[in-house]
Write a structure and sequence with these properties.
With 256 residues, the chain is of the alpha/beta class. It folds into 2 domains: 32-58 and 69-78 and 157-256, Rossmann fold (3-Layer(aba) Sandwich); 87-155, no CATH class. Helix content is 35%, strand content 24%. It has helices at residues 47-54, 95-106, 114-124, 140-153, 170-187, 198-204, 235-254; strands spanning 5-15, 20-31, 36-40, 62-67, 70-71, 79-82, 158-162, 190-195, 207-211, 218-223. The strands form 2 sheets. A 6-stranded mixed sheet has the order 6-7-8-3-9-10, sandwiched between helices. Strands 2-1-4-5 form a 4-stranded antiparallel sheet, covered by helices on one side. Helix 2 (95-106) packs across helix 3, helix 2 packs parallel to helix 4 and helix 4 runs parallel beside helix 5 (170-187). The longest helix has 20 residues, at 235-254.
Length: 256
C-alpha cells in the first residue's frame, strides 16, 4: 500500500546548556492508512521526539517526514496529538468546550456544526453526561478520554499518542487500552502510538517499530496484527514479548 506517512532516514538533535544531543539516528519507517503503528523503546531512545517531529514541532537535521507525499514543516489539524499529561485540557473550560476548542480555533468546520460534532464525540467515549463538567471534576482516565475525543473530533489523518496512559493506574490503563482499540474499530483512524511498555505495544499495535537505546535507531519492525487482549497469555504473545525484550537487552549490554 502507498504509505500515508513516510519517515525517511530522520536524525533528530536538540541542544542542552552543555551538549548537542542526538535523539535519533537515521530512522526510517512507513505508516499506511488504518495502521496502529507503535514506536517502542526505552526512555531516551527518541520515540517522543519522533512523534513531535511528525507533529511538526521539531525539524529533522537529516532526512524527511512526509504525509501523503507532502513534507511536514509545521503543525497542522491533519495531525492531532494526545499527550501523557492530564493538564492538556483547559481547566477553565467545560468538557464540551474543550472538545470544541480546536474546531473553533482551526476554523476547519462550520460554526453551526460544531455542537453536533461535540455531542457525537462525547457519546463515542461515553461521557455525554459530563459535557458541562470541568476537568478538575474528572478522573485521570476520563480526562484522557476527553483528550482523545477532542483529537478525533478534528477528523485527523493521523492520531499521535505520546504514552497517553503511562500516568494511569494499572486497571485504568488496561481499560483505556481497550477503549482505544474500540475507537479504532469504530473510526478506523490511523494511529502512531509511543510507549516503553512491551505488553502495551503488543496489545495496541498492528505493527511495532523497536528502537535501540539512545540514540534511537531501528532495531526491527514486527507484525503484531494477530494479537490483542485475548492473546495476552498465549504462546505467540509470550514469544514476541521475549523477542523484543532480547533485542532491547542485547543493545543495552552492548552500550554498557
Amino acid at each position: 500500500m502507498d504509505p500515508l506517512l513516510s519517515v525517511d532516514t530522520v536524525t533528530l538533535q536538540y541542544q542542552t546548556t552543555d551538549h548537542l544531543i542526538t535523539a535519533t539516528w537515521r530512522v526510517s519507517f512507513n505508516v499506511v492508512e488504518g495502521d496502529r503503528f507503535v514506536l517502542l523503546g526505552p526512555s531516551g531512545c527518541g520515540k517522543s521526539s519522533l512523534l513531535k517531529a511528525v507533529g511538526g514541532f521539531i525539524d529533522p537535521v537529516e532526512g524527511q517526514i512526509r504525509l501523503k507525499h507532502r513534507e511536514i514543516k509545521k503543525p497542522g489539524p491533519d495531525r492531532m496529538m494526545v499527550f501523557q499529561e492530564f493538564d492538556q485540557l483547559l481547566g477553565w473550560k467545560t468538557v464540551a468546550e474543550n472538545v470544541a476548542y480546536p474546531m473553533k480555533v482551526s476554523r476547519r468546520f462550520q460554526k453551526a456544526e460544531i455542537p453536533d460534532r461535540v455531542a457525537r464525540g462525547l457519546a463515542t467515549i461515553g461521557l455525554e453526561r459530563f459535557a458541562d463538567a470541568y476537568p478538575h471534576m474528572l478522573s485521570g482516565g476520563m480526562k484522557q478520554r476527553v483528550a482523545i475525543a477532542r483529537a478525533l473530533a478534528m477528523e485527523p489523518e493521523l492520531l499521535l499518542m505520546d504514552e497517553p496512559f503511562a500516568a494511569l493506574d494499572a486497571l485504568t490503563r488496561r481499560a483505556m487500552q481497550a477503549e482505544v482499540l474500540r475507537l479504532w474499530e469504530q473510526t478506523g483512524v490511523t494511529m502512531l502510538f509511543v510507549t516503553h511498555s512491551i505488553e502495551e505495544a503488543l496489545i495496541i499495535g498492528s505493527r511495532i517499530l523497536v528502537l535501540s537505546p539512545h540514540p534511537g535507531q531501528v532495531r526491527a519492525e514486527l507484525d503484531a496484527s494477530d494479537l490483542g487482549f485475548s492473546d495476552v497469555g498465549s504462546r505467540r504473545f509470550a514469544e514476541l514479548h521475549q523477542t523484543i525484550e532480547s533485542m532491547l537487552f542485547e543493545r543495552q549490554e552492548a552500550t554498557t
